[in-house]
TrEMBL record:
Protein name per Swiss-Prot or TrEMBL: Ammonium transporter
Membrane-traversing stretches: 6-25, 32-52, 88-110, 122-144, 156-178, 190-210, 222-243, 353-375
UniProt keyword list: Ammonia transport, Membrane, Transmembrane, Transmembrane helix, Transport
Gene3D superfamilies referenced in this protein's UniProt entry, alphabetically: Ammonium transporter AmtB like domains
Annotated localization: Cell membrane; Membrane
UniProt record similarity statement: Belongs to the ammonia transporter channel (TC 1.A.11.2) family.
Basic and acidic residues biased stretches: 440-454, 465-474
PROSITE patterns noted in UniProt: AMMONIUM_TRANSP
GO molecular function: ammonium channel activity
Amino acid sequence: MSFIIVAGAMVFVMIPGLAFLYSGLSRRKNALSLMWAVVASNAVVIFQWFFWGYSLAFSTSAHNGFIGNLRNFGLMKVFGGPSPGSPLIPAILYSFFQMEFGCVTAGILMGGIAERGRVFPAMVFIFCWMTLVYCPLACWIWSVDGWAMKWGVLDFAGGGPVEIGSGVSGLAFSWVLGRRQQKELLNFRPHNVSLVVLGTSLLWFGWLGFNGGSAFGANLRAVFAIWNSMLAASFGGMVWCLLDYRYERRWTMVGFCSGTIAGLVAATPSSGYLHPWSSVVTGVLSGTLCNLATKVKHLIHIDDALDLFAEHAVGGIVGLIINAFFADEDIIVLDGVSTTVRGGFMNHNWSLIYKQICYVLATCGYSFVVTALIAKAVDMLPGLHLRAGPTSEALGMDEVEHGEFATDYIELRRDFTAAPFITYESNDKTYTNGHPSAAGDRHGQPDTSLHDTVGDEDAPIEQGRISEKTEHHGASSSTSHTT
């Protein structure tokens, strides 16, 4: 019980990890909006899970194989009895641990609103999405009466509900929201790579509780799940970085972080079934295929700004298919409970390949269609339009939605010789010297205009030729001013 409590707390750390990751990947004028959406969705999911989410996913008195009933509404009758996950874990602890999975999944999905979505309608959407998409997906594979569970599908820690659920749903949500304005797509790059590294590190830490805790005990299977997570993450990061170097001749930090997350995603459904050498294959495949999948959004013209589909959906699919080939009973039985679960090709279970493929197709199709319908329905309600207007998009969601900023400061010019903006009076005349010290794209307003001297040519301070470097929408430009 102590191990699962700690593991659940580690999974919670993934919430600020996602918030930092998304904030760093966005433009500065939208950084706080994404942090708010991730943190607020966490609160919404906690309420939804307590209200009826746990019952809809794990009620033991529903036998339709698709979704539970309301027998455990408000956590009624959820006490110290055996849980659906393991007889060694009480139901009340299991409900907490699984709640954290739902919180992380919703946080991942909130990346779909990047730079153009309104946050309050997104909270209404996420409550409905948890009820109609996540809870059924969790019931399919983790409930004792779920159809995928009964069929023998192998999904250790959530390749279907968490990864495909968030990745494919993120694609559908982005499709309903529509593309950002063309000028917002030009020269787009992360505004703070340090936050990207911090967020990735917190996610990696939390993922060890995510995957290790899914063995439901401090046992050898949990240790193998943690080892497999580490290997897949490291090889995913290295492979992604190498692929990016091939194109750009740069060792990108964002690329390494992206590959690391892709490896962790692929380890989610597979880490509790594999020998460590198999996770090296998992990391290499996820790093390669997820990197290539980032091109899909351009082919289908859907503005998946933070690559939810490429990272989470494709990574989850890789991990699920890997199970069909490399899952081994020798690893599965190490938890002391799963003694009747068969592995894949390693144990001559040839039928597992088509079961895993059918499960992937079912989760992908259901997630996309139902998410798109929910998003469209919420968008049609008065006052709950999901998309902000073009003016709001230009100003930035932080200013329009929150009135606060993740980084609210005056940026100094990159060129040390650039003079500050000074206005002063002399001999009953007003003079302006230099340029404003704020440079770049602040709240959607580019500070790159030429400021002429006010007064006459006898101004007491004489400016020479000043070379000014500014940053606008992530692109550096050098402008020479003479006054």
